Amino acid sequence: NNTVPDIWKQHSYPSMKPLFSWIKDLGLRVQFFQDWIEKNPPIAMWLPAFFYPQSFFTGVMQNCARKTHLAFDDLCFDHIIMSESKDELKKLEVEGCYVYGLYIEGAKWEKERKCLGESEFG
After folding, report:
1. For residue 45, with 0-12 CB atoms within 10 Å meaning exposed, 13-18 middle and 19 or more buried, which class applies?
2. What is the per-residue burial (b if ≥16 Cβ within 10 Å, else e) of 7-26?
3. Contacts 24+ apart (CB under 8 A), 62-66
């Protein structure tokens, strides 16, 4: 029936994908973390790979607090949309992290205008 078995759902990340797509996605997630372990941390993080991305962002803020000797509660995120692709980024230029893999529903990102625009139908 091409659905993820319930026993797997109980121990996995939430997903509405059919079984084949879910297995493919799981393989990509495992490969992302395997590359991180065997090589170095990636310059840009594939955010959908994380089961609970909030904990990743908490870790980023904790690392920043330790490095800068600032109180954790005094830190906040500043979001900048980059014009470079993840493959063009060669090193982390700022304190924090680069992420990719975000999705938008009901709109599209207009690269040239650097803003949200009307989604295209069809």
Report:
1. buried
2. eeeeeeeeeeeeeeebeeeb
3. 64/95, 64/96
Give the residue from 92, 57, 52, 94 showing the smallest Cα distance to 72. 57
Query: What are 7's two structure tokens?
Result: 């026993």
Task: Return the CA Rg of the chain.
Answer: 17
Read off φ and ψ for residue 108, nearest 5 degrees. Answer: -140, 155
Q: Which residues contact 101 (CB under 8 A, 6 or more apart)?
A: 46, 47, 48, 49
Residue type, 20: F
Predicted confidence (pLDDT) per residue in 50-67, tens digit: 989 999 999 999 999 999
- Number of residues that this document lists for the chain: 122
What is the model's pTM? Answer: 0.83
